[in-house]
Amino acid sequence: MSTEVRVPALPESVADATVAALHKQPGEAVREGETLLDLETDKVVLEVPAPLSGVLGALHVKVGDVVQADTVVALIEAAAAPAATPSQSAAPVRTPPARPAAPPRPQASAPAGAEPPIAPAARRLIKELNLDPSAIPGSGVDGRVHKADVVAWLDAREQAAPEPRAEERQPFAPEPRPEPGPEPRLGGEAGRPEQRVPMTRLRARIAERLVQAQHSAAMLTTFNEVNLREVLALRARHRDAFEKTHGARLGLMSFFVRASVEALKRFPVLNATIDGEDILYHGYHDIGIAVSSERGLVVPILRNCDQLGMAEIEQGIAEFARKAADGSLSYEELSGGTFTITNGGVFG
């Protein structure tokens, strides 16, 4: 019996998705919940899991294909139960003698070598470094491995590596040369090389939205210098106690968010949007926090900032940064927003 694997429902603002990676090939065994392929949209990477355990049959897509919601991408054949042999079926049923109940055995752990659920960013890093995913403990739900888990595992392995004894060291030994990799696709004139790399959907949408904003919005830039001496002094005094109490570092972003909320309360027109012929004033303060990731710039939304304390703001921003690195931000976390803050201070 075959079971269809379909593209999950996409929001109204997203019409299609691109197949970014295939994790299984036809004929391979799959477990229920195991990721079959990754779909890249304008904002996030979606994982398509196996709806049941079995064997992957037909695969209807390849990397780079554009698919829409509810499109059939693969078929899974249910694993057949082993049939009883004639000798087994004809054997008489014997009742074994009663035995005293054995003490309960401890629950067996997952079999060694079984691949745990892996986040897309962690999967790319594991593939690049040719690591064994079953050896890396995950900190996420159901043992999900995140990129931070891979980095921590590499650090621990490096620290645990024994130092070679003095007699085993070979001074002035030449370092092995790495194997040559594939040549980049270079072009251009002599002395002026160019490399052409296809844009991801995220970067293409960023470029599209920036150009669209220049044509549809009244652009105005103003600069104001603010003396943050008292803020920096307050942060220095309470940084250690804040982190010990709340488990989050006290950065400057929580001060920026709180200051923005107070300013928006005084000037509500800055917390409004234009809807047709009307101005829609918002009685809540959903602040977009620009976060830079390996895939590009994303702006997750921190909801109801006027009701959050400094610790909740810092914890929310830290969670957004982790999800942006793992590519696990949801559409709900990226939609809406009444005001946006971009802090480029981290780049110097």
Structural class by helix and strand composition? alpha+beta
The helix fraction, in percent, is 25-40%
Number of strands: 17
In which order are the strands of the major sheet placed?
Answer: 1-8-6-3
Notes on the structure:
By secondary structure, the chain is α+β, with helices and mostly antiparallel strands. It is built from 8 helices and 17 strands. It has helices spanning 86-90, 120-129, 147-160, 201-216, 229-246, 253-266, 310-326, 331-334, and strands at residues 2-6, 17-22, 29-30, 35-40, 45-49, 54-59, 66-67, 72-78, 186-189, 192-195, 272-275, 278-281, 287-289, 291-293, 296-298, 301-302, 339-341. The strands form 6 sheets. It has a 4-stranded antiparallel β-sheet, with no helix packed on it. Strands 5-4-2-7 form a 4-stranded antiparallel β-sheet, with no helix packed on it.
Please specify the SSE layout and strand pairing.
Layout: E1 2-6, E2 17-22, E3 29-30, E4 35-40, E5 45-49, E6 54-59, E7 66-67, E8 72-78, H1 86-90, H2 120-129, H3 147-160, E9 186-189, E10 192-195, H4 201-216, H5 229-246, H6 253-266, E11 272-275, E12 278-281, E13 287-289, E14 291-293, E15 296-298, E16 301-302, H7 310-326, H8 331-334, E17 339-341
Parallel strand pairs: 13-17
Antiparallel strand pairs: 1-8, 2-4, 2-7, 3-6, 4-5, 6-8, 9-10, 11-12, 13-16, 14-15
Helix pairs in contact: 2-3, 6-7
